[in-house]
Amino acid sequence: MEKMSFKVQTTPFLKSNIDKSYIDKSSIVKSSISKQIAEQLREAIVSGGFKIGDRLPTEDELAQRYGVSRPSVREALKRLAAQNLVRARRGPSGGNFVVQPSYEELAGSLSGAATLLVGMGALDIVEIIDARRILQGGCLEHAVKNATTAHIADIETALERQRNPEISDEAFCQSDVAFHRALVDSTGNGMVRFVMYTVIEALIPVTNMIVTVVRERSDIISLHEEMLQHLIDRNSVLLNQSMNKLLDYLLAKFELASQS
Amino acid sequence: MEKMSFKVQTTPFLKSNIDKSYIDKSSIVKSSISKQIAEQLREAIVSGGFKIGDRLPTEDELAQRYGVSRPSVREALKRLAAQNLVRARRGPSGGNFVVQPSYEELAGSLSGAATLLVGMGALDIVEIIDARRILQGGCLEHAVKNATTAHIADIETALERQRNPEISDEAFCQSDVAFHRALVDSTGNGMVRFVMYTVIEALIPVTNMIVTVVRERSDIISLHEEMLQHLIDRNSVLLNQSMNKLLDYLLAKFELASQS
DNA sequence: ATTATACTATTTGTAAGACAAATAGATGTC
DNA sequence: GACATCTATTTGTCTTACAAATAGTATAAT
Description:
Two copies of one chain form a homodimer.
Chain A: H1 33-46, H2 59-66, H3 70-82, E1 86-89, E2 95-98, H4 103-119, H5 125-146, H6 149-163, H7 169-185, H8 190-202, H9 204-214, H10 218-232, H11 236-259
Antiparallel strand pairs in A: 1-2
Helix pairs in contact in A: 1-3, 2-3, 4-8, 5-8, 5-11, 6-7, 6-10, 7-8, 7-9, 9-11, 10-11
Chain B binds a DNA duplex through residues 9-11, 13-14, 16, 30, 32-34, 58-60, 68-72, 74-75, 88-96.
């Protein structure tokens, strides 16, 4: 098996007779080997060289093939794992496998990024609520057109769960997320789902705060019920209005709570 | 410094006269040490334990503090690096630093995820174009309201660059991205930027295909000019129409090219 | 013959130690 | 004082070794 060429200017490959003539000082890349390997593997995966469920070569084999050490390969694999691209299993018939990235996981990492931005002050809650307002118009319009009975049933399920006063605050927030997810699911557009999941998850802290601090579930529930009814009626204008009422409510409660 | 406790089952379960039926796969923490450390560090960062620009303890110190080996710490750090949370510098006064995540980088990783979904068939181009159509309405409306002269100047700059027939196909696509980014920038909403950057980047392959295969730049440019003018006129209806014309154009050319 | 058990081989997970490379700061020379 | 050199620190990489999980296989017991 041929070793692949690497753009490294480090020269500890004493024992290996690698042709270093390709090293071009003008195009020296300082990025670490693990990063380069991660890039190459990622490229191989997204370009279809490895399909979903495929097993990558073993770490030893990769190390050998790339002419690097196993720790370096592992660092690369961990980078990919952090992106939910691969997952490792031990044992024979184990290895590093290309995994099917799910909307949920991807949106999860996105929302992680979003909460990061919030936590670091680059984004604030008001902005997120506003973004939801800006983006929802087309979504809801589309949802009204495309929602199937299955979609509506999903929304009803989520709503039913949050009507139960016994459930915990965490469970209520979960069902709130489920409600809004189901709502954007009913657009039937995967990209919209992908993107809106992010916005929805970025709003979790607000809902969380309202439920735990303000201790007010009924207003949220009744607005949700209102929205569901408008969706069933296929009335996008009223649906949009109800959603805006919900956002107004969230915003008001949030500002109230952040003053104190 | 005391070692932190870890949920690892090290040696105890060795010899196997033990009844393993009690083992509940779901409750046992099987996550690797590097993953746990990555989680802890991430938590420490987002919760404000480390601020932007702060230097984490050295890898040796982290290894000591967590009671693990340096490779394990490094795998954890590479996970964080893959999320653009930390960056390493060598030398004295070097170390692993918490970095300010930029919209560009985050959107870059998002679009990476999106291209992944496209590459694996979970999303198709038509869907992305449609998503753009669904989401743009509110954006453009908001952009018309909030665009400053500086924003408009940015858009003009991008447009000017792509008018130059000398530039390469890659440069043209770059300026196309810059154009659309500048357009959503003019909404003035960070979350909208964050989210729309993703959609924009997911559309790069289409633009790329049109420019390199269909070899048609003038139509795109003139539609861009039209949009800019409508933005200057603060006419969101016409702006939306022009954008839809552009999307129609992209869709038509894409379907034409994918037939052949 | 079938079932349960133990073994073996394979692959990832973790550890420890060593050296290379980069780089900021201190030191010394002119 | 300016410049070169040395030194110490920290990440980057390699090497080797062993632990842990697990699928497959062989073996023993019923």
